[in-house]
Specification:
alpha/beta; Rossmann fold; 3 domains; four-stranded parallel β-sheet; binds 1,3-dihydroxyacetonephosphate; binds iron/sulfur cluster; 4 iron, 4 sulfur cluster binding
């Protein structure tokens, strides 16, 4: 048995022993995706975390995702294999920033992308993911002021789609913000017949659509579903490169070209099979969210799950 197969076997044994599941985001390294019980986007992972009857959830993703799982499962043990797996986007907004906006807009609504800390979610009215942001915002009272945070590119996209006036927090993910007009136009000239799948967090997501008006804007799981049903054979994919492994696994006879090979999230890549094995073995690192914050954050997550 090679090293990977050995680790996979150890993880399978530990999972059985502890009644555990491994949930993994599509940006995880291929080996981690391959041993996971569920792989998906932020929405799918939140749903799965809310539904699981396992005693232990190992979250192969980043901190805000593991926190969401802990908020949805206060009686379960949620583990993150590497607690340094942060998110540059969630770091752009703090609870104090939200309180400041709220004091200036006493009747306002705060809509938070799930890429936020538990403290920010606790001060929000409703959460969104990239898969449901348009639908959630459409469901909200149009007469109230609205703050969309923290991703400005997703915010712009939602504003365009809904036609709703809103304040947009000027945050960005360093990986997606680096996918812009240049990367998109280079790929358009190299692959004129390919279909373009773009994540709404990308710098090219809303403002560069004039370059490729028929590009499809999707969450990571939306890309997988679309590629499975499309008759096209070649796709240019604008998001973190980990999704290519999943797209290849879930389709047959199709070619996926990353719009930018170096679009790699170093936080997502911190989880390894070894760290997952160790986290199950030694019960590390337990994700803890203060009870009061968790109860308030849960209201915002549940409000989202009730819409879609
Ligand atoms: P989705 O998988 O929900 O599209 O989110 C992308 C992302 O950047 C998560 O960190
Ligand atoms: Fe955060 Fe961007 Fe990494 Fe997603 S890809 S976890 S938004 S830094």
């Amino acid at each position: 048995m090679d090293e990977t197969a050995l680790l996979a076997a150890e993880i399978a044994e530990l999972k059985k022993h502890r009644n555990a599941v491994v949930l993994a985001h599509s940006y995880q390294v291929g080996d981690v995706q391959d041993i996971a019980d569920f792989v998906g986007d932020s929405l799918g992972l939140s749903r799965e975390a809310a539904a699981t009857d396992a005693d232990v959830i190992v979250f192969a993703g980043v901190n805000f995702m593991a926190e969401t799982a802990a908020i949805l499962n206060p009686t379960k043990t949620v583990l993150i294999p590497d607690p340094k797996a942060g998110c540059s986007l969630s770091d752009t907004v703090s609870a104090r920033d939200v309180l400041r906006w709220r004091s200036e807009h006493p009747n306002g609504l705060v809509v938070s992308y799930v890429n936020t800390t538990a403290e920010v979610k606790a001060l929000s009215d409703i959460c969104v993911t990239s898969a449901n942001a348009v639908k959630v915002v459409e469901s909200l009272d149009r007469d109230r002021d609205l703050l969309f945070l923290p991703d400005m590119f997703l915010g712009e996209y939602v504003k365009q789609q809904t036609g709703r006036e809103m304040d947009i927090w000027l945050g960005e993910c360093h990986v997606h913000a680096g996918i812009g007009e240049q990367e998109l136009s280079d790929r358009i000239s190299s692959f004129p017949d390919a279909e373009f799948l773009i994540h709404p967090e990308c710098g090219c997501g809303s403002s560069c659509l004039y370059l490729k008006p028929d590009a499809k804007i999707f969450s990571t799981e939306g890309m997988v579903n679309y590629a499975q049903s499309s008759s096209k054979k070649e796709f240019v994919v604008a998001t973190e490169v980990g999704i290519i492994h999943r797209l290849n696994k879930k389709t047959y006879g199709k070619r996926f070209i990353p719009v930018k090979e170096s679009a790699v999230c170093q936080y997502m890549k911190m989880n390894t099979l070894e760290k997952i094995r160790d986290s199950l073995r030694s019960n590390t690192h337990v994700v803890r969210v203060d009870d009061d914050i968790a109860a308030k954050a849960r209201r915002a997550i549940d409000a989202m799950l009730a819409v879609v």
